[in-house]
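Journal club side-thread
Mid-discussion, someone asked how the predicted structure for our own chain would compare to the paper's figures. Pasting it here so we can look after the session.
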Amino acid sequence: GEVTLTVPDGAPPAWQSLTLEPDSGGEATAGFFVGHPFEGEPAELQAFLSGVGPGAHVLLPGGDLSQNGLELVLDRVHLHGHPGGTRLGTRPGGVTVVTGHGGSTGLSDLALDASYLGFRSAEAELLASTPDSPTAVVLTALSYTGSTFGPQAGSDPGPIDRLVLEDSRLVVTATARLTAIADVTLRRTEVAAHEVQVADPLAVLIDGSSVVGHALVDVRASEGLAVTGSTLRADDGNVFVWATGDRSAAPPAPGRLVVQASVVEALSQQPGARGAARWSSTPGAPPSSSAATSASRQRETSTWSPRETATSPSQATASRPESVGTTAPS
């Protein structure tokens, strides 16, 4: 028979675990989605999202959902893929996340094939009604394939409070630019792009993740940067890991760099070049604090363990073979 459920006000959104105990005995469990199921035609998706309002969680149908080149704009809504698998395609269009007037936007359990996944500041009239209200962007179990990720060079992405990627995979043919005001977090996530840039939030956490750029990996945070159980690699370029600190303070405040059980590695694809620069931390060793280490790709692979220095900014660098391996002066 049918079971009718009434969702009380204030119930947590998205997927919840539901347990039924019939009078005849036993029990049954199932996942139950609290939110708005989308059941229309693909071309109706944008209008549907605009109508559900800020904070809504929307469940997409299973299968292939093509937008036929249209841009999809997400403004403080959360898209969830179907448990049976949802592929959302927008090429040659893309997906834009509107930021700067509070709330949060999320993409979960979804395969997204788009020309871009970008951020854009809200319109001026909306910003005026919600001043100083950055937006959080949370990506969970997202598989994204596209040309770019993040704001375009020279554009205003709007204030993003937090950028969180968990159990996700980004494959980007050009630049992946991860930016936020407070923090950027990667957990159990793979990022592969021509260039990967993490653009100077207060804090960065890269945990159990892989960040690979063909030409560049540049990770910067102003207060603290932690890399644990992860790999940062450039296949034919440089890797920079910076905890820049606050030089305007009196006295200047150093940033804190922690690298544990991880590898920072720069490889060379140039004809005649051999070996690699490899900066790795040793499991069980104390974390580095305000450490500054530089390495170059030479004939043999070199390995550095983190150590204590008093330099600021904190950095670990694996650089191109034309450079000379040094320890930065304190």
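Post-session note: The CA atoms of residues 254 and 327 lie 18 Å apart.
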